[in-house]
Amino acid sequence: MKMRTAIQLTAETGLWPDLVEWVAEAERLGVDHCWVAEAWGGDAATPIAGLSQHVDRMTFGSGVFQVGARSAANTAMTALTLQRITNDRFSLGLGASGPQVVEGLHGVAFARPLTRMRETIEVVRMAEAGERLALNGEEVRLPLPGGEGKTLRLSLQPSDQPLPIYIASLSPRMLALTGEVADGWLGTSFVPEGSASSFKALATGAERSGRTLADLDLCQGAEVAFARDDQELEAMVHHRRAGLAFSLGGMGSADTNFYNQAYARQGFEEVAAESQRLWLAGNRKGAAAVIPDEMVLATTLLGTTDSVAERLKVWSDTGITHIRLYPAGTTLEARLETLGRVLDLIPD
Fold first, then answer.
1. Is the whole model's pTM more than 0.85, yes or no?
2. Confidence at residue 109, expressed as pLDDT on a 0 to 100 scale
3. Which of 151, 160, 299, 317 is most enclosed, with most CB atoms within 10 A?
4. Mind listing the domains of the chain with CATH numbers?
């Protein structure tokens, strides 16, 4: 089966008319899906509601809602509202994020993210089924014990169509939870040649629910750029090192960095440790410089037309069923050109 294709955007990137045009043109080129990110900038729900009115076929997803940023009930309310607005073209992507964002931005304790994720999904499924929201969980308690609240059912009429739920997971335990309770995996920091540890955890979780890995939509993302020669490719690789160094050293604290740990499990343990050490010491250039070409090329789609096609086949053969594309280009026209080229290379 041919991989589903997707683009990803953030609401704060570019002017709104440009985002509308980007999504509309991506649909025209044949892109299946649009994921909208939510980190510490714009929210994801608002642009999904707006953009969905400018396309006819494309589906949308939150990529991701952080489970610490909304109450479980509000997550359910938002998801079911978007499902209605998009005419059942919405998928709920959830992520735990990390302590720097959850505690620093939202003022919510990051403790027990796995439990909060599981219980949030339980509440969403209750709401989707039209049930009263009642859960005596460890992180989510509905209604609040000892208060004056009572068990409520959302007044929003649920859809007849099931709501697909994806989990953005990196750690083995969250990967296992993804396999157990989600419809799909929103992955990142992915190296196909080192993916066995991720797939093993996903499969272990799937077995708990009587499923297999084949029952999950496995979605991964990569930057895409085409080089005309070795010199241009070298410049692309050099530019990407800075982004990888940020993931290894800046996307989390010294003790909690899921991105760093993911790369370490996929064969780059020494590089991940050294780059993080240099980043935390304030040496950003040094943190980027220690990242080898091999690591950059393993986790991206950078190269000639032939080499990008070869890497796409590797991703497909590995088991990826849904690919998020981040096309290079400083203008809309350039990004669309890159997008069109890579879409022509997606293996059947």
1. yes
2. 87
3. 299
4. 4-224+304-343 (3.20.20.30), 228-303 (no CATH)
